[in-house]
Design goal:
The chain has 13 helices and twelve strands. With 348 residues, it is of the alpha/beta class. The chain has two domains: 195 residues, D-Maltodextrin-Binding Protein, domain 2, CATH 3.40.190; 148 residues, D-Maltodextrin-Binding Protein, domain 2 (3-Layer(aba) Sandwich). Helix 2 links the parallel strand 1 and strand 2.
C-alpha cells in the first residue's frame, strides 16, 4: 500500500511539474504501478525534472505492445518494454503480424534503449493447503500461467515444459486472466498452482498471503544448467537469474524451496526505450539522470534492489544475441562516462 501511495504521489508531482530548468517536454508510456518497469519510468520523470533535463508526462497502465510502436513511429518519446517485443516487432510476428516483417523491421530499427530493467523472474508457487510437492507434482493440475496472450504466457508455458516436461492441454490444464485479475485468480481457488514472474519481495504473493501460507519453488539446479534450459535462457528478452535464498525477503508465511540455497529462474528483461532520432545530448542527459540517482531508485521499493537497475552486463541485461535492440549512442556515452562497460554488440 505504501508503494502504491508513493508512486501515485510521484505521478501527480510529475504531471504538475513546471520546473523552469527543464529544457524538454516529453511523453512517456509505461505499465501499471507496482512493478519494476513502472518504477523506472516514474523515477526517471522525477530525476530528469530535478536535473533540469526534461518534464516527462507519464501515462501508466498502457499496453506496452502499442507503446513501443508509438515510440518507433515518433508518437511517444519514451516507453517501457520487455525486450521480447522489439524482437517480435523486428520479425513482424505475434502482436505485430499485421505489420509484416518488412514494416516491422523498419519500425524496430528506430528503437534504442537507455537502460535495462528486470521485470520479473518466473517461479512456481502454491498455497500450502493445495499439497503441491513441487515441479514434479504438476501432472493433472490446473495452473494459472499468465494473461490470455503475450510474452508472459509464452514464457510460463515454456518454463513449465522445460522443468516438468508437461505441455498445457496434455499434462496439465492452464488458465489465464489479465494482470488486473491476477491476485484474485491466485486466491479464489481457480488454480492448484501458479507459474508467473515474481520479484523479491513480490506484491502479488504478499497480497495473497491473507489466504494462507505459500511455498515458492526454484528451478532445480540440474534442469537449470541443462542444455535445453541454457538455450532458452538466451532467447530475446530472457536472462538467467540466481539469488541467495537468504536474501529473497518474500516475507513471513512464504517458504522458498531450493536444493542448495540458491534460487534459480528465468528473468524477463526489458528497459525504457526511445527513438533513434532522439538527440545524442538528450538521450545522454536522461540516462545520466538515471545513473546518478540509482541509489535513490533502489530505495523506492523493497523489490528494487534485485530489479536489474544499473546492471548492464550483456548476459544479465538481455542484450545482444537474438535481441536486435541496441543502446542509444547518448546512453552508451553516459554509461561509459560513469565507469560502466557496454559491449560493442550492444552499441548502435
Amino acid at each position: 500500500m505504501k508503494l502504491k501511495k508513493s508512486l501515485l504521489a510521484l505521478g501527480l508531482a510529475t504531471a504538475f511539474s513546471t520546473s523552469v530548468q527543464a529544457v524538454e517536454n516529453l511523453t512517456g508510456e509505461t505499465a501499471s504501478p507496482g512493478g519494476s518497469i513502472h518504477l523506472s519510468m516514474a523515477h526517471l520523470a522525477e530525476a530528469a525534472s530535478a536535473a533540469g533535463v526534461a518534464n516527462i508526462q507519464v501515462a501508466d497502465g498502457q499496453t506496452l505492445t502499442n507503446s513501443i510502436q508509438n515510440v518507433a513511429e515518433g508518437k511517444t518519446d519514451i516507453a517501457g518494454t520487455p525486450y521480447i517485443l522489439p524482437f517480435l516487432l523486428s520479425k513482424g510476428r505475434g502482436p505485430y503480424s499485421k505489420l509484416g516483417e518488412e514494416k516491422g523491421a523498419e519500425l524496430a530499427g528506430n528503437l534504442r534503449a537507455l537502460y535495462p530493467v528486470t521485470l520479473g523472474i518466473f517461479a512456481l508457487y502454491a498455497f500450502d493447503s493445495q499439497g503441491i510437492k513441487g515441479w514434479d507434482d504438476l501432472e493433472g493440475r490446473t495452473i494459472y500461467n499468465g494473461p490470455p496472450r503475450g510474452a508472459a504466457l509464452t514464457n510460463a508455458r515454456s518454463v513449465i515444459q522445460l522443468t516438468s516436461g508437461l505441455k498445457e492441454g496434455e499434462g496439465y490444464k492452464g488458465i489465464q486472466t489479465n494482470w488486473g485479475q491476477a491476485t484474485k485468480t491466485i486466491t479464489d481457488g481457480s488454480a492448484d498452482a501458479v507459474v508467473l514472474p515474481i520479484l523479491f519481495p513480490d506484491s502479488r504473493i504478499t497480497q495473497s498471503l491473507a489466504s494462507g501460507n505459500i511455498t515458492v519453488w526454484s528451478v532445480p539446479k540440474d534442469k537449470f544448467e541443462g542444455e535445453a534450459w541454457q538455450r532458452y535462457l538466451k532467447a530475446p528478452g530472457s536472462a538467467p537469474f540466481t539469488l541467495d535464498a537468504s536474501q529473497a525477503g518474500l516475507g513471513e508465511g512464504v517458504t522458498l524451496v531450493t536444493e542448495d540455497g540458491t534460487f534459480r529462474g528465468l528473468a524477463t528483461i526489458g528497459g525504457d526505450i526511445v527513438n533513434k532520432d532522439m538527440s545524442f545530448e538528450l538521450a545522454k542527459a536522461l540516462t545520466k539522470a538515471h545513473i546518478d540517482t540509482l541509489d535513490q531508485l533502489k530505495k523506492k521499493a523493497p523489490f528494487a534492489r534485485f530489479a536489474g537497475y544499473g546492471v548492464v552486463d550483456t548476459v544479465k541485461s538481455g542484450m545482444c544475441g537474438a535481441n536486435p535492440l541496441k543502446y542509444h549512442a547518448g546512453a552508451v556515452a553516459a554509461w561509459e562516462e560513469a565507469g560502466y562497460t557496454i559491449d560493442d554488440c550492444a552499441k548502435p
